[in-house]
Amino acid sequence: MRRLWIIALLLMLTGCGTETVETPEETALTVETAGLADGRILRAETAVVPGRADGSYDLTVTVYEAADLSAPVQVIQDTVGWPTAAARWSDANFDGWPDLFYTTHTTVRNDYAAWWLWDTGAGRFEKSEALSGLAMFPDEESGRLTQWEEWTIQTYAYRIYGWQGDQLVCLREIKKNWAEEGSQSLACTVTDDPMGTAQVVWQSRCMAGTEEEPALDAELQRWMDYDHKG
User: Fold this and answer.
1) Weakest mean pLDDT among 50-54, 112-116, 198-202
2) Which of 14, 65, 91, 167 has a 20 to 30 A CA-CA distance from 132?
3) Of 16-25, 108-117, 147-156, 179-188, the least confident
4) Considering only CA atoms, which of 34, 3, 167 is closest in space to residue 100?
5) Is the alpha carbon torsion for 78, 81, 85, 87 positive or negative?
6) Burial of 74 (0-12, 13-18, 19+ CB in 10 A)
7) How many helices and strands (H and E) does the chain possess?
8) Beta carbons of 21 and 29 less than 8 angstroms apart
9) d(CA 220, CA 208)
């Protein structure tokens, strides 16, 4: 269920034109377009080619100005473990310019992505190591990003990030995990860290599978709203 929610959210975030192009069987090609703040339209063509011995894929994202397809603005190349890793658009640093991201690999419970931020001075995308890794989901309305990490069906972490200048910082972490290895006791904590000094603002425990657990999950859900202060 969470995986379906994540996929739906990714599609909502892009808000851009999508086109699938007929290509040979060994190559999957997807086209995405997005408007820049200065009125230009960028076109990103993503080609994913299988065939590596380890099961990974060669990914190439070719970025053009839609008005001039004679020469690319930039070519991004990567090796990914996910066959449908089409590049998509979203403004991850909330500067009004679209940024690029694509899925690099997935596990049973989590998705991972690479992010490339538009550099207005250079007129090209630069990879963001801070954003790349476990999937991030920007919310332009709040100006924050969220991240979901799941360990088991019962244990997870939900994180809320924000920008302080050009630095990405974790503002809040909501965590539900086993209190001790091998135990059936669940420890839940909410940690706020807006100034770089972690402070636990809420915590509780319960035994897994008891009637207390749904109530604890509901309380954690309330803390996932960053405006909730307890």
Assistant:
1) 50-54
2) 65
3) 16-25
4) 34
5) negative
6) middle
7) 2, 15
8) yes
9) 15
User: Is the distance from CB of 223 to CB of 202 less than 8 angstroms?
Assistant: yes
For 149, the token pair is 């990490």
> Are the beta carbons of 65 and 42 closer than 8 angstroms?
yes
What confidence tens digit (pLDDT) does each residue in 64-112 have?
A: 999 999 999 999 999 998 776 678 999 999 999 999 999 999 999 999 9
The distance in angstroms from the start CA to the end CA of the chain is 27
Residue with tokens 């940690």: 191
Distance, in Å, from the CA atom of 183 to the CA atom of 151, rounded to the nearest integer, reads 15
| Dist. CA 223–CA 196, nearest whole Å | 19
The amino acid occupying position 60 is T
Q: How far is the C-alpha of 177 from the C-alpha of 174, rounded, in Å?
A: 10
145-177: per-residue pLDDT in tens?
999 999 999 999 999 999 999 999 999 999 999
Q: Other CB atoms closer than 10 Å to residue 124's CB: what's the count?
A: 13
Check: CB of residue 179 under 8 Å from CB of residue 185.
yes
